[in-house]
Design a protein that fits this description.
Length: 310
């Protein structure tokens, strides 16, 4: 896709308070010289703007086999980073046999931890281009992963619907993505070339008072997210904020839980062979307007990675 922005996209970026837009060249390593100064600061500088409390929380079909041949490896259990002393019983490997519709139902029926007692709705996720056979997963080359539902997300059952969600939509629109984009009925052929995006969270229920997720809660919800990824088979993952980044990268980045978010930015990580780009959570960007330019640089990097993947 091209980063030659039209007037609508420029208006969206202006709403993000990013004043200068430079297209990213094909050479990712050339990024610091091709982007404005505000976007090209080293990640070591960016690290100081990601305190532990900077990231606020956010904010169901039987089917055929996944649509792409390069299926992801099957889950082998919970990551070793989940503490054994949490007292939470890991989920059954039965999740590996669930299709998209079955996974949605599993999330809706989940009572695995105490978060289920206070929720209004579970938040499975939204987006992607729907194929004609609705039992299949939506087409989503992009997967955007946040932390947990917030109050408005709990009430609506949809991720990122408050002010942070509006900012996220503007960010996605600026690179040509739309969570509400729909394909024409029966237009399965068009789905082979279209780029859809799916938005999900690590946790599927809202933590009380929007507190940070606990290790036992992540331990119960992570297999659900892993199964979503296995079925969606995205070509790139955008991790929003510290919890999403640490959860997705805990098997590939040593000591990731001790690395500031700023130092995880500006590079391409991997989740089971899928490229992962880390950026700030939109809720944080609402409070730190100066870092919106850095988030735009992260989006440019993600677009470049997606383009290079073909």
């Amino acid at each position: 896709m091209s980063l030659n922005l039209d007037l609508r996209q420029r208006a969206m970026l202006q709403e993000m308070h990013v004043k200068v837009w430079w297209p990213l060249t094909r050479d990712v390593e050339a990024q610091p010289t091709m982007l404005p100064t505000a976007l090209a600061q080293p990640s070591a500088t960016a690290a100081v703007v990601a305190p532990e409390q900077a990231i606020a929380p956010q904010p169901q079909h039987a089917g055929a086999t996944p649509r792409r041949a390069n299926a992801l490896p099957q889950m082998t259990g919970l990551p070793s980073a989940v503490p054994a002393e949490t007292g939470v019983t890991p989920r059954s490997a039965d999740l590996q046999r669930l299709d998209w519709r079955g996974l949605q139902q599993a999330v809706a029926d989940c009572r695995a931890c105490a978060l289920s007692q206070g929720r209004s709705h579970t938040v499975f996720g939204i987006g992607g281009l729907a194929p004609q056979a609705m039992e299949r997963p939506p087409v989503a080359d992009w997967l955007i992963v946040g932390e947990a539902p917030g109050e408005q997300e709990d009430l609506s059952g949809e991720p990122f619907v408050g002010p942070a969600g509006q900012l996220l939509d503007n960010m996605l629109h600026a690179i040509g993505l739309d969570r509400h984009r729909q394909s024409a009925p029966g237009d399965d052929a068009a789905l082979q070339t279209a780029q859809g995006c799916f938005i999900a969270n690590v946790l599927k229920c809202r933590p009380p008072a929007n507190r940070n997720p606990e290790a036992g809660e992540v331990a119960q919800c992570l297999p659900l997210l892993q199964r979503q990824i296995e079925l969606l088979q995205p070509k790139i993952i955008l991790a929003l904020g510290r919890f999403a980044a640490q959860t997705l990268l805990q098997d590939s980045v040593p000591d990731v839980h001790g690395i500031p978010l700023g130092k995880l930015r500006g590079q391409v990580h991997q989740y089971r062979g899928i490229p992962v780009v880390v950026t700030y959570h939109p809720a944080y960007l609402l409070r730190a307007l100066g870092d919106k330019a850095k988030a735009w640089a992260d989006l440019c990097l993600a677009v470049q990675v997606r383009q290079d993947a073909g």
